[in-house]
Specification:
five-stranded parallel sheet, single chain, six-stranded mixed sheet, alpha/beta
């Protein structure tokens, strides 16, 4: 995240330099989060492992991601686009979130879930296809509370 923030905050040749460094570490450590991704403060990746995020995605504050997560794009149909992830969201291992959807605040996405529908705030999402249980948020799961 350090190099991602440096890319976003610089211009010209300095920006190109930080983009090269970001690309190097992306390959070395398996995190593919482009510098164009909008990431809020308090973003936390719990463990080493592959994480793929589309460069047009938006991730809110205090989002926790586990290994194997994909936040991707749908290229056609009614879901064409990328997800918007709210604040205080916990995303379990190997979860896949795709399409022009919105994940609300205080949501827990269980490991292995396939999410391609809007998720209301304060929900628990599990399964493939996603089953949404409202009123069961992320209390006790968020590890890196920034600014709260």
């Amino acid at each position: 995240m350090f190099f991602l923030r440096l890319c976003a905050g610089s211009t010209g040749l300095v920006r190109m330099w930080w983009r090269l460094i970001l690309r190097h570490y992306s390959y070395k450590y398996g995190f593919q989060i482009p510098h164009t991704t909008k990431v809020g403060k308090g973003f936390y990746i719990g463990h080493f492992g592959t994480v793929v995020v589309n460069g047009n995605a938006t991730i809110g504050d205090n989002v926790n991601i586990s290994p194997g997560v994909v936040i991707g794009q749908v290229s056609r149909g009614r879901l064409k686009g990328v997800p918007t992830i709210g604040n205080r969201v916990w995303i379990g291992s190997n979860a896949i979130i795709v399409g022009n959807i919105t994940v609300g605040n205080d949501v827990l996405i269980a490991p292995g879930a396939y999410v391609n529908t809007d998720v209301p705030a304060g929900s628990l999402v599990m399964g493939n296809p996603a089953v949404i249980s409202t009123g069961k948020g992320v209390e006790g799961y968020i590890m890196n509370e920034w600014g709260l």
